[in-house]
Design goal:
Blueprint lengths: L6 E3 L2 E3 L3 E3 L21 E3 L16 E4 L2 E4 L8 H14 L4 E6 L4 H11 L7 E5 L16 H12 L5 E5 L7 H11 L3 E4 L3 E4 L1 E2 L4 E2 L5 E5 L4 H14 L5 E3 L6 H10 L3 E4 L2 H4 L3 H15 L28
Parallel strand pairs: 3-4, 3-16, 4-7, 7-8, 8-9, 9-10, 10-15, 15-16
Antiparallel strand pairs: 1-2, 5-6, 6-14, 11-14, 12-13
Helix pairs in contact: 2-3, 3-4, 4-5, 5-6, 6-8
């Protein structure tokens, strides 16, 4: 029985379940100098806004034990430059699905981005970054409020035929409420988790390490939180496609996410320390499946072996 890595992610067919996460891979062209990025399952672009953004002041990155805090501020080239200068390369790739991450300060901006990208060839889906503060709601993040999450997705859904992936924030009390709202509003898949709100301090100067004081924590330190949230959402939404991310460094990390319920994974922070990690994860995942005589990654999805006596207990158990 030959092992194959193809997966179905809602309406998207991927040649393998390994994608690269938004904000960690540029627009793909830079990494293509190091290896053939057409071998990836998917590329999620750096966030795109209607107008170019210069991002936050420096310092805006700080390395922590087992992770990294960043407050880049969604710096990007803007929609027009993306279409004219970045899409030609992405369009030339025949293997990976191309997912454009979009972001706005108002719902109308997400809607306009989706509408203007609709006729751009070479795009397979949109990932909605819901962790941006909504200017019209006093700065509350779209992704921490179920009604606001649903409203964004519902209105974007009306303007695009492409796959919609909702990228969920971990900075909530119950991620399943947000996940259900996103799925019911029309999201084809969910990606979780985004970065955790964090703070680093310099004890010598008594100042924060990041110019904006707080930033988003990513890397291996967040993996246990990400695994827990993927597991919770899979239990709450058995049929909804899930992309797991948060601290994946190796193929075994990816396997853990699949066991908890992810259908595919995204690699983010690891791209900075080991640019070829996505290829290593693809090869390692294939070997893992072959060793166990499993036909495809779907054989692992949601197969975490929880003792029967614990299956009916609440999803959150502390202390």
């Amino acid at each position: 029985m030959a092992t194959q890595l193809k997966v179905q992610l809602g309406p998207l067919k991927l040649q393998n379940p390994v994608l690269v996460a938004s904000g960690t891979f540029g627009y793909g062209e830079e990494y293509n100098r190091l290896y053939d990025v057409s071998r990836l399952g998917g590329i999620v672009t750096k966030s795109i806004s209607l107008k170019p953004r210069s991002g936050n002041p420096v310092p805006r990155i700080y390395e922590t034990p087992s992770g990294m805090i960043n407050a880049i501020g969604l710096q990007n080239v803007g929609l027009e430059a993306f279409i004219q200068k970045k899409m030609p390369f992405l369009r030339s790739l025949k293997g990976p699905r191309i997912i454009v991450n979009i972001v706005g300060d108002r719902i109308s901006e997400y809607v306009e981005l989706a509408a203007r990208l609709e006729d751009v060839k070479g795009i397979d889906g949109l990932e909605l970054n819901l962790s941006c503060p909504n200017c019209e709601r006093g700065g509350i993040e779209f992704g921490v409020n179920p009604k606001l999450t649903a409203e964004v997705i519902r209105k974007v859904r009306r303007r695009t035929r492409r796959a919609i992936i909702a990228k969920l924030s971990p900075n909530v009390t119950d991620v399943t409420l947000i996940a259900r709202a996103a799925a019911e509003a029309g999201a084809d898949a969910l990606s979780l988790i985004n970065t955790l709100l964090a703070l680093a301090v310099d004890a010598s100067t008594w100042r924060p390490r990041i110019a904006t004081v707080t930033g988003g924590l990513s890397g291996p330190a967040v993996k246990p939180v990400a695994l827990r949230m993927v597991w919770q959402v899979r239990r709450a939404l058995p049929k909804t496609p899930i992309i797991g991310l948060g601290g994946i460094m190796t193929a075994r990390d990816a396997v853990e996410f699949l066991l908890c319920g992810a259908n595919a994974v995204q690699l983010g922070t690891v791209n900075y320390v080991n640019p070829k990690a996505p290829l290593e994860v693809i090869a390692g995942l294939k070997s893992y499946l072959a060793e166990r005589k499993l036909k495809s990654p779907s054989a692992l999805v949601g197969k975490l072996q929880v003792p029967e006596r614990l299956r009916g207990l609440p999803q959150v158990v502390t202390g």
